[in-house]
Design a protein that fits this description.
Strand content: 15-25%
CATH architecture: 3-Layer(aba) Sandwich
CATH superfamily: Response regulator
Oligomer: single chain
Helix content: 40-55%
Number of helices: 3
Shape: globular
Order of helices and strands: EHEHEHE
Largest sheet: 4 strands, parallel
Structural class: alpha/beta
Number of strands: 4
Strand order of the largest sheet: 2-1-3-4
CATH class: Alpha Beta
Length: 89
């Protein structure tokens, strides 16, 4: 079975960098960590992961982003992957 995935979404690169650093320190051996700079990119990443039969364990998303907001993104990801846990920042 392939590793589960954590997807982080934020339009601010410094926030994404911080999340990636902290996650790699704590769970890098157990999870694949994916980053996206906006909701549309995150949806593409999630769809591709699911097509390749990866399980998305967690999505950490900023709430206020240009374009689609974080709450709408999490609703759409839930429709694709109901078992995925969500954190809205």
């Amino acid at each position: 079975m392939s590793k589960q995935v954590i997807v982080c979404v934020d339009d601010e690169p410094t926030i994404l960098d911080s999340l990636e650093i902290e996650l790699k320190k704590t769970v890098d051996d157990e999870y694949i960590i994916e980053m996206a700079e906006n909701a549309e990119e995150a949806l593409e990443v999630c769809e591709e992961l699911l097509e390749n039969e990866h399980e998305i364990a967690l999505v950490i998303s900023d709430c206020i982003m240009p374009g689609m907001k974080g709450d709408e993104l999490l609703k759409r990801i839930h429709a694709l992957s109901p078992r995925t846990l969500n954190i809205l920042l």
